[in-house]
Amino acid sequence: MNSATPTAIAVEEITGLILAGGRGSRMGGIDKGLQNFSGTPLALHALLRLQPQVGELMINANRNLAAYESFGVPVWPDGLADYAGPLAGFLVGLERCETPYLLTVPCDTPLFPPDLAARLGEALLAHDAEIAMVNAPEAAAEADGAAALRPQPVFCLLRAGLLESLVRFTQDGGRKIDRWTAQHRTVLVAFDRPGDAPDAFFNANTLAELHALEGQGLRR
Ligand SMILES: Nc1nc2c(ncn2[C@@H]2O[C@H](COP(=O)(O)OP(=O)(O)OP(=O)(O)O)[C@@H](O)[C@H]2O)c(=O)[nH]1
Ligand SMILES: [Mg+2]
After folding, report:
1. CATH code of the domain covering residue 65
2. Per the domain annotation, does 3 fall within a domain?
3. Does residue 7 form part of some domain?
4. Model pLDDT for residues 142-179, shown as the tens digit of each residue
5. Inside any domain, residue 6
6. 8 Å CB contact between 159 and 101
7. Ligand 2 centroid to 126 CA: how many Å?
8. What's the structural domain count of the chain?
9. Given the CA of residue 19, which atom of ligand 1 is nearest to it?
């Protein structure tokens, strides 16, 4: 690598996308992104956490669009019909992205790290990858105290040029994120350094999990 090769992606080159387009079935069908986390709607909480890490922001939601619009950034519903899954959010995000990179973050993982974009960006450049995906510790630690790592496909830094590929993949009926990312140079980025919060990627699928996460957030 010569000395002129950049090792970091500039904040302004990244658009952050909050994924809030799901059905929330495990929460009884309520709109997850609008549920309060310590007094702030989850989607707004994610937006504020991502704001210092990116240049532009947008939200992907399929219900209660006016409520999401009140958070002050563009809101885009899925173009694919019938809750096709988070890849539908990736698709509309890439369609609307005007920067060279898109960073996706789900609305239901409020403790994600403040250096998420920086570390995914560094790894993407270092490996000359098209996609950088989070690899995060599982909730249950192994006997030796180390937690196994598991990919978190909804936390992805993508090159915006992947739009054409995703259009093709979804037009052919593809719906699984990891099936699509497997077609591209993808680097998994481990968030298990000393000092990394072990629960940074815990997400809330039920209201009970959401309340437990609120407790974890308060103890930080
Ligand atoms: N755009 C879009 N996003 C989705 C869709 N389904 C899930 N997501 C998002 O993907 C992320 C992870 O999904 P889940 O944790 O399964 O959330 P969910 O689908 O709302 O909840 P369940 O219905 O309980 O599975 C969340 O940020 C969701 O908002 C969808 O059909 N369209
Ligand atoms: Mg789901």
Report:
1. 3.90.550.10
2. no
3. no
4. 666 677 999 999 999 999 999 999 999 999 999 999 99
5. no
6. yes
7. 32
8. 1
9. 27
Domain that holds residue 33: 12-219
Pocket lining: 207 vs ligand 1, CB cutoff 6 Å: no
The pLDDT confidence band at residue 53, using thresholds 50, 70 and 90, is very high
Q: Which stretches within the chain are classed as H helix? A: 42-50, 65-69, 86-96, 116-126, 163-171, 177-181, 207-219
Is the beta carbon of 25 within 6 A of some atom in ligand 1? yes
- Tokens (6 digits) for 176: 């699984």
The answer to whether the CB of 88 falls within 8 A of the CB of 97 is no
Q: Is 195 annotated as a binding residue?
A: no
Please indicate whether residue 83, judged by its CB atom, sits closer than 6 Å to ligand 1: yes
Mean pLDDT of the chain: 94
> Is 1 within a domain?
no
Nearest ligand to the C-alpha atom of residue 24: 1
Q: Which atom of ligand 1 is nearest to the CA of 18?
A: 27
Quote the pLDDT of residue 210.
95
Q: The dihedral of CA 69, 107, 132, 86: what is its sign?
A: negative
